[in-house]
From TrEMBL:
<dbReference type="GO" id="GO:0010181">
    <property type="term" value="F:FMN binding"/>
</dbReference>
<comment type="similarity">
    <text>Belongs to the flavoredoxin family.</text>
</comment>
<keyword id="KW-0288">FMN</keyword>
<dbReference type="InterPro" id="IPR012349">
    <property type="entry name" value="Split_barrel_FMN-bd"/>
</dbReference>
<protein>
    <submittedName>
        <fullName>Flavin reductase family protein</fullName>
    </submittedName>
</protein>
<feature type="domain" description="Flavin reductase like">
    <location>
        <begin position="21"/>
        <end position="165"/>
    </location>
</feature>
<dbReference type="GO" id="GO:0016646">
    <property type="term" value="F:oxidoreductase activity, acting on the CH-NH group of donors, NAD or NADP as acceptor"/>
</dbReference>
<dbReference type="InterPro" id="IPR002563">
    <property type="entry name" value="Flavin_Rdtase-like_dom"/>
</dbReference>
<keyword id="KW-0285">Flavoprotein</keyword>
<dbReference type="Pfam" id="PF01613">
    <property type="entry name" value="Flavin_Reduct"/>
</dbReference>
Length: 201
């Protein structure tokens, strides 16, 4: 196998481009917030994951100081809306660099509705939303890592089977490298081995 080595100390190397092409697929947090002045904001963030199981905490990274981050710091809350395939173009369009005084949902015609526990509205058409209170932030170079404690899950009953969300009904989008997006994947189910003797041969 022949390999090309990229040294991160080399100024000609772009680690961001390599990371976003190698660490794939990345789930999308379509985050809604409101500013201290009450202006809504809606933007996709693909550096998103689970940080803790108990208490339930999710995390995302803001690359640069964007409106989403400023609003969360000001109001201490946000909502993560599941980015679903039918809304692909709306989600992509909401990534444009709107001015802070502009409400992306309003401009793009995205219907919002009241959340259960926060003042921040959720995307009405999203199959699931996670209402979060800010837990903490950590500055990392040019980025800020944001952790939010999940206060309430709001899930469309149509995506639940025996109380559990089903991926074929959520149809989640993901980000890949460059301008590429991933659609809901082909799913393979495997029982996790408990003991070495359980390992399939």
């Amino acid at each position: 196998m022949s390999r090309t080595v990229f040294d991160c100390a080399d100024p000609e190397v772009d680690p961001y481009r390599l990371m976003t092409s190698l660490i794939v697929p990345r789930p999308i947090a379509w985050i809604s917030t409101i500013s201290a002045d009450g202006v809504g904001n809606l933007a996709p963030h693909s550096f998103f994951s689970v940080a803790c199981a108990s208490p339930p905490i999710v995390c995302f990274t803001s690359v640069g100081r964007k409106d989403t981050l400023a609003n969360i710091i000001a109001t201490q809350e946000f909502v993560v809306n599941v980015a679903s395939e039918p809304m692909l173009h709306l989600i992509n369009n909401s990534a444009a660099s709107f001015e802070p005084v502009v409400d992306e949902a309003e401009v793009l015609g995205i219907e919002m509705e009241h959340s259960e526990t926060t003042k921040v509205p959720r995307v009405a058409a999203s199959p699931a939303s996670l209402e979060c209170a800010l837990h903490s932030t950590q500055e990392l170079g040019d980025s800020v890592h944001v952790l939010g404690r999940v206060l309430r899950f709001s899930i469309d009953a149509d995506v639940l089977v025996a109380g559990r969300p089903q991926i074929d009904r959520l149809r989640p989008l993901s980000r890949l490298g460059g301008n590429e997006w991933g659609l809901a994947p082909v799913v393979v189910a495997l029982e996790r081995p408990i003991e070495p003797r359980d390992i399939a041969r």
